[in-house]
């Protein structure tokens, strides 16, 4: 065996081990160095981290001090708010207690008010009961007083009604004895007492004395022939037209102020005028002549003459914006636009008189019949309800009566119940009848115009005025304050029929008061003295 080789091997092995040990040591040293480096690095990092932590802690400490300061302030604020809240809570509690006390007071007051209301209701009920008792007693007393006053008024009224009738008759007697001054005073006293005690001013003695003493009649001689018709224009133009049998047509103005201003418009004796009509829309006057002519006078007083195919025409009536012209045995239809006859019709009867009924012309013939002209070709014929010749007619739609004036001077009135009254007061033919309410006016050839009060238990004629000739026609003015009549002698008569107008005229005539002796003699010692002249 080779020992040298083994030593080499052992040396080599030792060398290898040393090398390995050295390598391991070096490695360990390197690892230690590396670990030291790492440890140093970690220490540096830890140091840096600690410094950062220190900074953070310093910052946090500073922030903590700030926070502590803030917290202290917040705590102080919170304490202040808690204190305020406690105060507010205590105040709220106090307010609640106060509110409760007030509620209790209010409840107490409400209970007291309710009690007072109940007491008031009881008191009011008692007061109402007492008031009702007092009212019943008052009503009973008032009724007794009213009954006493009514009894006194009835007694006074009856006494004064008797007195005024006596005064009226006395006034008429004194006036006719030419003691006009005393008659005026007595008549005015009669009117005064009548108005005061609500008597009937149209009672015969009172109205007649008023009419006589007020001197309500005026007469003008205007025409040569008989005045056949009178008609008025509208109030705005204020004129009146009259016509006569002597061919005269006159235009009159100023009749409301008591002065009659007259103008002759047509004067031709060949005409015999019987009827007049004024168209108030155009102020055109139509005058019908018995000679067979229609005279047309426009608002400028221009005259146009139209010949008519009707024998002896005497009446015209307006119907359906046209004229019906009546003559002997014939009638004609006249168109006012063309001024011409457009139709004629023969009549199987002779006309005695014409008037209007139911807003249509009505004709009374000489055989006791009446014909209502509802149209030119529509005529309704009836028999007159009593014997005699009808010469005038009038009706009242509101009072429901019809009046027939007769040739013998009587007047027949048929009321709404069909009852007939016969009025006697005229001496000859009735020439015209007109109605105003329950008052019937009549004229006659006996020269009188009478008034009939159809609502009176006893109907007596009251003569408004008389003339010396036949009264052919009469009419009211537009105000129905006066009657205008025309007679056969050409006289135009105006008479007041308005009680207020007559009373005012009579009052203006009176110049003095009664003496005590006159009052005691004519009025009576038991009637308190009064002044009638201011």
Summarize the model shown:
The chain has 5 helices and 28 strands. By secondary structure, the chain is of the alpha+beta class.
What are the segments in which pLDDT stays under 50 over at least 5 consecutive residues?
Answer: none
Tell me the span between the first and last alpha carbons: 202 Å
Cα gyration radius (Å): 63 Å
- State the secondary-structure class: alpha+beta
Brief descriptors of the model:
534 residues, alpha+beta, four-stranded antiparallel sheet, 31% strand
Structure commentary:
The protein has 534 residues and is an alpha+beta fold. Helices cover 41% and strands 31% of the residues. 27% of the residues are buried.
What does the secondary structure layout of this molecule look like, with pairings?
Layout (H helix, E strand, L loop, with lengths): L2 H174 L3 H17 L7 H10 L3 E5 L5 E6 L7 E5 L3 E6 L7 E7 L5 E7 L4 E6 L3 E5 L5 E5 L7 E5 L2 E6 L2 E6 L4 E7 L4 E7 L2 E6 L3 E7 L2 E6 L6 E7 L4 E6 L4 E4 L5 E4 L6 E7 L2 E6 L3 E6 L8 E5 L4 E6 L5 E6 L3 E6 L2 H11 L6 H8 L11
Antiparallel strand pairs: 1-28, 2-3, 3-4, 4-5, 6-7, 7-8, 8-9, 10-11, 11-12, 12-13, 14-15, 15-16, 16-17, 18-19, 19-20, 20-21, 22-23, 23-24, 24-25, 26-27, 27-28
Helix pairs in contact: 1-2, 1-3, 2-3, 2-4, 3-4
